UniProtKB/TrEMBL annotation:
Organismal lineage: Eukaryota, Viridiplantae, Streptophyta, Embryophyta, Tracheophyta
Protein name: Alpha/beta hydrolase domain-containing protein 11
UniProt keyword Hydrolase, yes or no: yes
Entry keyword set: Hydrolase
Start and end residues of each AB hydrolase-1 domain: 55-319
Family: Belongs to the peptidase S33 family.
Keyword Transmembrane helix: no
Pfam families tied to this protein: Abhydrolase_6 (PF12697)
């Protein structure tokens, strides 16, 4: 599909890499507040965008992990409706990617503050509120927290709810470590035991494999290194990420799914082969989706992505596109 996009006349894929230092006066202070780092992906520069989706990565990832999928999604949506131009904003969540180097993103490092960062970015850039938010794994819970905070009025009276929320292979309730194989915990504990800088990516991958992790997981961890002099160091703030993972496990958003704000649709995509889901959680989601609404609240739906494990954008990106794109294509800009 990417080859076909490159060969299509007149189609320009725009990717902008941006840190977002914005002078913001907080409580009389004149210090500069730097908001989250992000990247923009659009299908064309020939016309202005009129819809925006935020794309949120998972634990130990970064926005760039979702670059390929976001390009294809933006292009698919542009082709389906020439009058609509989507902008995908690939955010580096606090403690991750280029946001790991940004000062001023103070603790506690939890879902509430990760969602607050999104609102701060919107306000600092003087953007309209996003029409959709797409979040994978931990990013899914940040998306749910953002929606909950919007509905609660935490961001002020000018807030506009996202019309669609896409939660990709992210369990919406509390995550009990006793019901999982503990792989994430093992990875975090292992990374904490390693030196903060390592000789090379090859060394790290070999070490992780020696410790019993799969080659694919070890190589993915290795992809999250950055050059620091003659050595490599983490492209994330490890201790901050650990705190965020603990918050991810503890937070529950069942009440939001049961009572979505009017005008919002929350869609959960469960990967068919994912090991994140307990049967009782699946049953509860299916019952909730079958209840329907009375018109006074928003909507909830659940979708199953076949032939995919947890890494939905890698295992079956085309299948994910087929689920997400048609619904997003129904979104229309607010009339001005």
């Amino acid at each position: 599909m990417a080859r076909a996009l490159r060969n299509k006349p007149g189609l320009h894929l725009l990717t902008r890499f941006l840190n977002s230092p914005s002078p913001v006066h907080l409580h009389g202070s004149t210090r500069t507040l730097e908001t989250l780092a992000y990247e923009e992906v659009r299908a064309s520069t020939d016309k202005p965008y009129n819809l925006t989706a935020f794309v949120l990565h998972g634990l130990l990832g970064s926005g760039r992990n979702w670059r390929s999928f976001s390009r294809n999604l933006a292009s698919t949506l542009s082709n389906s409706s020439p009058s609509i131009e989507w902008r995908m904003v690939l955010v580096d969540i606090r403690n991750h990617g280029r946001s790991a180097d940004i000062e001023g993103l103070e603790p506690p490092h939890d879902m509430v503050n990760a969602a607050n960062d999104l609102a701060d970015l919107i306000k600092a850039r003087d953007w309209a509120w996003p029409d959709a938010v797409i979040g994978h794994s931990m990013g899914g819970k940040v998306a749910l927290q953002f929606a909950e905070s919007c509905a609660r009025g935490d961001y002020g009276e000018s807030v506009v709810y996202p019309k669609q929320l896409w939660i990709l292979d992210s369990v919406p309730g509390e995550v009990n470590s006793e019901n999982s194989d503990g792989e994430v915990e093992k990875v975090l504990q292992t990374l904490q035991s390693l030196p903060s800088s390592v000789p090379s990516r090859k060394w790290l991958v070999s070490r992780m494999i020696e410790l019993g992790f799969s080659k694919s997981l070890s190589e993915w961890i290795g992809s999250n290194l950055k050059k620091s002099g003659e050595h490599e160091t983490w492209a994330f703030n490890l201790e901050g990420a650990v705190q965020m993972f603990n918050s991810y496990r503890e937070k529950s958003y069942w009440s939001l799914l049961e009572h979505p704000p009017k005008g919002m649709e929350i869609a959960i995509v469960r990967a068919e082969n994912s090991d994140r889901w307990d049967s009782h959680v699946i049953h509860r989601l299916e019952n909730l989706a079958n209840q329907g609404g009375d018109g006074d609240e928003g909507k909830f739906s659940i979708h199953v992505l076949p032939n995919s494990g947890h890494w939905v954008h890698v295992d079956n990106p085309n299948g994910l596109l087929e689920i997400v794109a048609p619904k997003l294509a129904s979104v229309r800009p607010d009339s001005s």
